[in-house]
Write a structure and sequence with these properties.
Distance between the termini: 41 Å
Shape: globular
CATH class of the domain at 5-186 and 237-268: Alpha Beta
Domain NAD(P)-binding: 8-328
Enzyme class: isomerase
Number of strands: 13
Organism: Hymenobacter crusticola
GO cellular component, one term: cytosol
CATH topology of the domain at 5-186 and 237-268: Rossmann fold
Family: Belongs to the NAD(P)-dependent epimerase/dehydratase family.
CATH architecture of the domain at 5-186 and 237-268: 3-Layer(aba) Sandwich
Length: 342
């Protein structure tokens, strides 16, 4: 039986690469589009090592309309797109807002412009819990009001959601699922793909693993005076493989035409962990003591946010299966693999 073709933009990135693996293992034919501006081509080898096959890959910017048309013409009969390709660092977006708007919003608009010409109707959008801003109540549901973003990055996610909703209202040909992620962590159990931050990590877990590996002198925890039980930020940390599986379920739902033209789902674990809890869970999972210090709070950081996942459980049939410690152990295994390959 011929595999259904699904384009994965940003397919060499952290979440994208794991989604490619899960799609292929579920019987789909993923096609990677990535310009490698925030990823490495070595990831393609990791994917191939896991799957035993080479996944088609196109080194283009999905904001480049002519290049996109060329790929869609060449690949033929694409049934859907999962759109990961975006810049994603909150701090960097405060310094380079124009780059974030141009890349994140511009690439979406180019995709939406080109898709109808190739009969592509199904679209899974990589959104974020940042659209909820600083929520009034926890946990957040899909009905929790979105708020003014605390960063240009968050604002691009909100704008992209609005664009997709407006386009879906204006046409009968677009069917889209907005997946609002919480905090993806960990690596594939094979340790052949994982998070590959270029330069200084912007996310907590790679900073933890690099500190544990001796690459960083210490981990700085940004603020311990938040209104949380231990004073540090609370987030909902989801194992990246679980998150990747949610995309497979979303794609199938679109193909089966089971939902409305636009649907939104929170994808998290449904529980929050503080930064200090993550540090201690890492130490417990790996037996490695971390050198950490408390620094000042970061601009744009939300004190606490975690998901209500009832809708994803009931309507998508999706639940996470891995614990925080299991996810952190996989991240450490990946870090050791990276160190051994240097």
């Amino acid at each position: 039986m011929e595999r259904v073709k699904i384009v994965v933009t940003g397919g060499a990135g952290f979440i994208g690469s794991h989604a490619v693996v899960e799609l292929y293992e579920a019987g789909y034919q993923p096609i990677i589009i990535d310009d490698f501006s925030n990823s490495k081509e070595s990831v393609l080898r990791g994917i191939q090592d896991i799957l035993g096959v080479e996944i088609p890959s196109h080194n283009i910017d999905c904001g480049d309309e002519s290049a996109l048309r060329e790929v869609f013409s060449k690949e033929k009969d694409i049934q859907g797109i999962i759109h990961f390709a975006a810049f994603k660092a909150v701090g960097e977006s405060l310094q380079k807002p124009l780059a974030y708007y141009q890349n994140n919003v511009g690439s979406l608009m180019t995709l939406l412009k080109v898709m109808p010409d190739f009969g592509i109707e199904n679209f899974v959008f990589s959104s974020s819990c940042t659209v909820y801003g600083i929520p009034d109540q926890l946990p957040v549901t899909e009905q929790t009001p979105t708020k003014p973003a605390t960063s240009p990055y968050g604002n691009t996610k909100k704008m992209c959601e609005d664009i997709l909703t407006d386009v879906a209202k204006a046409t009968t040909s677009l069917h889209t699922i907005l997946l609002r992620y919480f905090n993806p962590i960990g690596a594939h159990p094979s340790a052949k793909i994982g998070e590959l931050p270029l330069g200084v990590p912007q996310n907590l877990v790679p900073f933890i693993t690099q500190t544990a590996a001796g690459m960083r002198e210490k981990l700085t925890i940004y603020g311990d005076t938040y209104d949380t039980p231990d004073g540090t930020n609370i987030r909902d940390y989801i194992y990246v493989v679980d998150l990747a599986k949610a995309h497979v379920v979303a794609v199938q739902r679109l193909l089966d035409r089971k939902g409305e033209a636009v649907e939104t789902f929170n994808v998290g674990t449904g529980r929050g962990n503080s930064v200090l809890e993550v540090v201690h869970a890492f130490e417990k999972a790996t037996g490695v003591k971390l050198n950490y210090t408390i620094g000042p709070p970061r601009t744009g950081d939300v004190p606490a946010i975690y998901a209500d996942v009832t809708k994803a459980t009931n309507e998508l049939g999706f639940k996470t299966t891995s614990s925080l410690e299991e996810a952190l152990a996989s991240a450490w295994k990946w870090q050791q693999t990276l160190a051994n390959s240097q």
